[in-house]
Design goal:
alpha/beta; globular
Length: about 230
């Protein structure tokens, strides 16, 4: 069980809904025999939250972003006393500057929308291929992504979200295609009302309403996809 402060550090926004991803990732990571022997890459790391999540499990992590992570990332890692097992890198997710089979884990949250922004949907396949390439045999992709969701979500984003017209919100088919090369995978979808609630004090209530309505809302209306995908051993 994670504290609210930990979830804020890892996820930064809408922490209750996105924490469903953390729970799912823990399921697969808890099955690994020696986490301290693993090496991970966080893509789109920005402020370093997911690198912190992995490093606190003892996993050596490369925290990366396009243009490099912000100074906040290093400050957070220093504050949490795990900076010794974190490196920093400037990496484009569609052209990862590492050789093949370098990482046991690749992790990202909410990056594909900018990778494929402004109609550049061909970049989704590039990013998928690059992530698959740099994972070792048996390596694991941990992901959480913003989805297209309902027509109401699409309207609200265009109307009220500054980047809503440029960001690419994935369809279920695009998410499934992204993880198609992997031997085993788990994709889940969550969240409807929480996307519309901007008052922080009401976010937890919205999360519980979404939990209650989870089985009655089609996946195509949910705004978060999360899960894991594992590469074949050979």
């Amino acid at each position: 069980m994670y504290t609210k402060q930990q979830l804020n550090n890892y996820l930064e926004w809408d922490i209750y809904s996105w924490s469903k991803a953390i729970d799912c990732w823990d399921e697969i990571l808890n099955k690994q025999s020696n986490l301290k022997s693993l090496k991970a890459l966080e893509l789109g790391g920005r402020n370093g939250g997911l690198s912190l999540y992995l490093a606190q499990k003892g996993i050596h992590t490369v925290c990366s972003d396009f243009g490099g992570p912000t100074p906040k990332a290093n400050a957070l890692h220093q504050q949490e006393n795990i900076a010794a097992i974190i490196e920093y890198a400037d990496i484009d997710a569609s052209n990862i500057n590492f050789p093949d089979a370098q990482f046991d884990i690749v992790i990202f949250k909410s990056i594909l929308g900018v990778v494929a922004a402004n109609g550049k949907t061909e970049n989704l396949a590039l990013a998928s291929n690059e992530i698959f390439r740099v994972l070792k045999p048996g390596g694991i992709l941990l992901f959480a992504e913003n989805m297209k969701a309902s027509s109401l979500h699409s309207w609200a984003r265009k109307k009220f979200v500054r980047w809503g017209n440029n960001w690419h919100y994935l369809s279920i088919n695009e998410m499934e295609q992204f993880v198609a090369p992997y031997q085993t995978k788990k994709i889940q979808y969550f969240g409807f009302i929480s996307a519309f609630v901007k008052i922080a004090a009401l976010k937890k209530l919205a999360y519980f309403i979404d939990l209650l309505k989870y089985r009655f809302i089609p996946n195509s209306w949910k705004y978060i996809a999360y899960g894991w995908a594992q590469k074949a051993q050979n």
